[in-house]
Amino acid sequence: MENVQLLRGHLASHQSGLREAQLRREIESLRLESEVQQEIITNLTFRHLLENLPSATAKTKSATTERTCFFRIALGKAQSHSQTVLQTHPFDALLRKYKNTAQMEAVGAGLYSTLSTNIHHFGSQYRISSAQWNAL
Q1: Is the pLDDT of residue 29 over 90?
Q2: Which SS3 state, helix, strand or coil, does residue 127 take?
Q3: How many CB atoms lie within 10 A of CB 115?
Q4: Of residues 38, 35, 43, the one with CA closest to residue 118
Q5: Tens-place pLDDT, residues 35-71
Q6: Residues near 46 by Cβ (< 8 Å), separated by ≥ 6?
Q7: If we measure between CA atoms, which residue out of 39, 65, 63, 41 comes closest to residue 52?
């Protein structure tokens, strides 16, 4: 019983409250750092996927033209797919929500440069730990 009373006294003490507040601040800081790192990982992952899209045209055109063509074809297939088949296409939800396919094509075409901007300007936007990135 004496130990229980001592523990209760310690928990009610000022020192315990300070330590708890310090730990909460540290947890919040680590949570925010984790979110930022997840943003970087997401940008890198999506850009990698865009770089490795199945070619919609012959490889004689630029990568930008290839991506633009890919999105145009994918949106066209989604439109025809949603009118003929009950199964869903990955873009069906987008087409139901946004009717302007030209705008979606433009966003798709600009997605690579948006992701690249996020990645290459991380120095001013993100704190990168040296434990995760080497000098290269």
Answers
A1: yes
A2: coil
A3: 20
A4: 43
A5: 888 888 888 888 888 888 766 555 556 777 777 787 7
A6: 111, 115
A7: 63
